[in-house]
Automatic annotation (TrEMBL):
Keyword field contains Lipoprotein: yes
Name of this chain's protein: Outer membrane lipoprotein-sorting protein
Coiled-coil regions listed in the entry: none
InterPro entries per the UniProt record, alphabetical: TP_0789-like
Classification lineage: Bacteria, Pseudomonadati, Verrucomicrobiota, Verrucomicrobiia, Verrucomicrobiales
Organism: Prosthecobacter fusiformis
Residue ranges of domain Uncharacterized protein TP-0789 in the record: 106-213
Gene3D superfamilies hit by this protein: Lipoprotein localisation LolA/LolB/LppX
Signal peptide: 1-19
Pfam families given in the database record: LolA_like
Key words of the record: Lipoprotein, Signal
Length: 235
């Protein structure tokens, strides 16, 4: 069985049988592969978010199952964010003292725990956009030395913080290894990159991911957050 790659905030793990189901998948089939990979999840992970500029740290517990991806933050005020994977698109909920509520689209660009993640990143709405194109069937991420499909998805409207999103999907696993998001003026605003992975049996799980946000007016980096995770526990 080929190695699996887990991108925790994008949280994609796929079986080798799915990745090999077609010799040359279309862009839409690749996006479907990423979505279906959620059903492979059955892990509990602990770790932290760290702001590179301020040094702020947020402890994190991430639980992955076939129906829910749950982020639990313990620092006051405690907060749970869970992504309901039984709906299409997946539905993002925020749980705080006093109850839970669905995260509205108007809050999609809001920062999560004052880090470079926003609620759009956690909802992953872009995995359900219909306008998807193959940009490069043989793209490579040099640092990670992996071969990817590069696909681009375009939003149906400009209501969210991202208009186009480029996804580097690992050909051996169907996992997303890198993501770049652009606004409606084609300016880069966000980049996710898997930097390190854990070896877990015949699979690989996220060990470190770097998230960078950019000022679309001049291209300067606004912030950088690292997500580092301990080895996952089987549920």
């Amino acid at each position: 069985m080929k190695r699996r790659l887990l991108l925790a905030c994008l949280a994609t793990v796929a079986s080798s049988s799915m990745a090999q189901s077609v010799a040359t998948p279309t862009a839409a089939e690749i996006l479907g592969l990423v979505r279906r990979s959620y059903a492979m999840q059955d892990h509990k992970m602990t770790g932290k978010l760290r702001d590179e500029d301020t040094g702020k740290v947020e402890p994190l517990e991430l639980t992955l199952t076939k129906s829910v991806m749950r982020f639990r933050f313990s620092n006051p005020p405690a907060e749970i964010i869970h992504l309901d994977l039984t709906t299409s698109p997946a539905t993002l909920w925020q749980v705080k003292a006093g109850g839970s509520s669905q995260v509205p689209l108007k809050n999609a660009a809001d920062s999560v725990r004052e880090m470079d993640f926003n609620y759009e990143d956690l909802s992953q709405r872009f995995l359900y956009w219909k306008d998807v194109k193959m940009m490069n069937a043989n793209a490579r991420i040099t640092a990670a030395r992996i071969k990817c499909w590069l696909v681009r998805v375009t939003a149906p409207d400009t209501s969210g913080p991202y208009y186009t999103v480029d996804l580097w999907v690992h050909q051996e696993s169907g996992g997303v290894a890198k993501m770049e998001a652009y606004n409606s003026a084609s300016k880069l605003v966000k980049r996710f990159e898997v930097m390190k992975v854990w070896k877990v049996g015949e699979a690989s799980a996220l060990r470190e991911m770097r998230v960078q946000s950019f000022n679309p007016l001049n291209g300067d980096r606004k912030g950088m957050t690292y997500m580092t995770m301990d080895k996952p526990e089987k549920q």
